C-alpha cells in the first residue's frame, strides 16, 4: 500500500454513529490500576522508604565508646524486634488495603459488565421487523372473446365474408 500525498488519510469510522466498544472499559480499568499502584507505592514508601526517627534514634543510642555487654545486646535485640513488629503490622495493613482495592475493582468490573450487557441483549432481543404479507397478484380478466369468422381447417383460402343485408 502506498501513500499518495493528494489523498487525505482518515482513520475515523465510516459510520459517525459507531462508537468504540471497549474504550470506556479500558479507560476505567487503567484509572483504577493507576490509583491502586499509587496507593501501593505510597504504602511501601511509608513502610520501607524512610525509617522513622524513633527507630534510628533507638538503634543509634546504645552505640558508645565502651564495649557492649550482654544486657546492651539484649536491649538492642528487643528494640529491633519491636521495629520488626511495627513493620510487620504495616505490611499486614498494606496487604489488607490491596485486597480491599482488588475486591472493589472486581465489583466495579462486574457492574460495568452488567451495564454493558443490557444494551447488547436489548439490541439482540428486539424482534426483527415482521415481513409484510404478500398480497396475491390480481387476477387478469380474460380477454373479451372476439367474434370468430370462418375457420379454415384444411389450409385452403376462405371465401370473403358475406355481408348481411336486410
SSE map:
Elements: H1 23-49, H2 53-60, H3 70-125
Task: Characterise this structure.
The chain has 166 residues and is mainly α. The protein has helices spanning 23-49, 53-60, 70-125. It is rod-shaped and about 165 Å long. It starts with 22 loop residues before the first helix and ends in a 41-residue tail after the last helix.
Main sheet attributes: strand count, strand direction, barrel closure: none
- Our count of helices gives 3
Terminal-residue CA separation: 93 Å
Q: What string, H for helix and E for strand, traces the elements in order?
A: HHH
- Shape descriptor reads rod-shaped
Which stretches of 5+ consecutive residues score pLDDT under 50? none
Secondary-structure class: mainly alpha
Proportion in β-strands? under 5%
How confident overall, as mean pLDDT? 75
**Helicity, as a percent range:** 40-55%
Radius of gyration using CA atoms only: 47 Å
**Strands, count:** 0
Amino acid at each position: 500500500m502506498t501513500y499518495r500525498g493528494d489523498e487525505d488519510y482518515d482513520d475515523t469510522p465510516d459510520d459517525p454513529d459507531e462508537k468504540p466498544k471497549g474504550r470506556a472499559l479500558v479507560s476505567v480499568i487503567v484509572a483504577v490500576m493507576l490509583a491502586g499502584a499509587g496507593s501501593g507505592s505510597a504504602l511501601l514508601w511509608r513502610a520501607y522508604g524512610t525509617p522513622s526517627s524513633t527507630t534510628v534514634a533507638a538503634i543509634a543510642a546504645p552505640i558508645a565508646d565502651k564495649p557492649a555487654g550482654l544486657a546492651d545486646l539484649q536491649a538492642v535485640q528487643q528494640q529491633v524486634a519491636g521495629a520488626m513488629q511495627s513493620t510487620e503490622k504495616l505490611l499486614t495493613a498494606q496487604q489488607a488495603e490491596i485486597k480491599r482495592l482488588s475486591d472493589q475493582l472486581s465489583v466495579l468490573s462486574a457492574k460495568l459488565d452488567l451495564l454493558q450487557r443490557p444494551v447488547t441483549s436489548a439490541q439482540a432481543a428486539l424482534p426483527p421487523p415482521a415481513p409484510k404479507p404478500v398480497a396475491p397478484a390480481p387476477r387478469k380478466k380474460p380477454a373479451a372473446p372476439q367474434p370468430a369468422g370462418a375457420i379454415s381447417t384444411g389450409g385452403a383460402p376462405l371465401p370473403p365474408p358475406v355481408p348481411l343485408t336486410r
